Amino acid sequence: RSSYSCCYFVLPCCFFDFHGKYSRRQSKKTQYREYLDFVAQVGFVCGFHVEEDCLRIPSTKRVSFIGKSRSYPAAERALIDKQITQFINSRRTCAAAACDRRVGFNHEDHCGGGLCKEAGSEPAEDETETAGTIWMPGFQPREKVEQVRNCASLPRDFVDEVVLNVANLLLNAAPQKSCSDKQGGNMNTWNQGESLSLREVAEHLDKETLKKLKSEYGGLQTLLKNNHQVFEVLNGRVHIRDWRKEKAPSKTKPEVKRRLSAEAFKTRLCWFFFHHPDGCSLPSEACPYAHGTEELR
């Protein structure tokens, strides 16, 4: 629809229609094949000679469609555009209850020629009048540059402040709990603090902080999970991570992963060494993080 000279390539993957998830209408075909036929149909309705190809890629979804030429002369653009408008609006109708299989609607009987309509229905006047001016009322394309909203773009000072506040909240939530282990015959006590639900943690944060987190995908939970060194989030509850309980790297781990782990060793400062009242629970040589700037790699 962009222009008569436009060509296209599409690799169908997720099963979506114009207005939501694609609804199956034929049980004799696989869901994938039926969806491919629908995507090809869209190309035909838009006036393309649609070619199908299978890509040599390591994926189960590797059938693609190419539209390199039109099936109508340029002079008929306005007529085809009306047809496209009717098709888009008819797909919205098909998404409604009137086209539900439960009421016996037969998609094949009403989609001849690429136009899916209810029996006896005619396109509304506004459907043809808006052809070429409004492609789809209410449609809002996403921005050219998609905003990163996984808490990774939040200011570092803000993230550090939230991490410190939540950690102190967990440490002070209950009387000090001892996690003891024997090292050389001595008892070493390290405070792991209490665990709280995400809701309880959120209730202790100020409104301005919550407002910033609300605009991010996953909000508080995402921020805490991003700070894997300090926190562990399990079943909606937040814990301070005790690195003594972490499993040692497996000797059977793939060589690539073992090499990456080794390369990341001591490349970041240890949060516990600088901020936890008892320091780090691990000795310097066993901690994967640097106990001081002099250890940084």
TrEMBL record:
GO terms for molecular function: tRNA(Ser) (uridine(44)-2'-O-)-methyltransferase activity; zinc ion binding. It comes from the Eukaryota. GO terms for cellular component: cytoplasm. PROSITE patterns: ZF_C3H1 (PS50103). Its EC number is 2.1.1.211. It is found in: Cytoplasm. A zinc finger (C3H1-type) spans 264-294. GO terms for biological process: tRNA methylation. Its main location: cytoplasm. Keywords: Cytoplasm, Metal-binding, Methyltransferase, S-adenosyl-L-methionine, Transferase, tRNA processing, Zinc, Zinc-finger. It catalyses: uridine(44) in tRNA(Ser) + S-adenosyl-L-methionine = 2'-O-methyluridine(44) in tRNA(Ser) + S-adenosyl-L-homocysteine + H(+). Residues 264-294 form the C3H1-type domain. InterPro entries: tRNA_uracil_MeTrfase, Znf_CCCH. Belongs to the TRM44 family. Adenosyl-L-methionine (AdoMet)-dependent tRNA (uracil-O(2)-)-methyltransferase. This is tRNA (uracil-O(2)-)-methyltransferase.
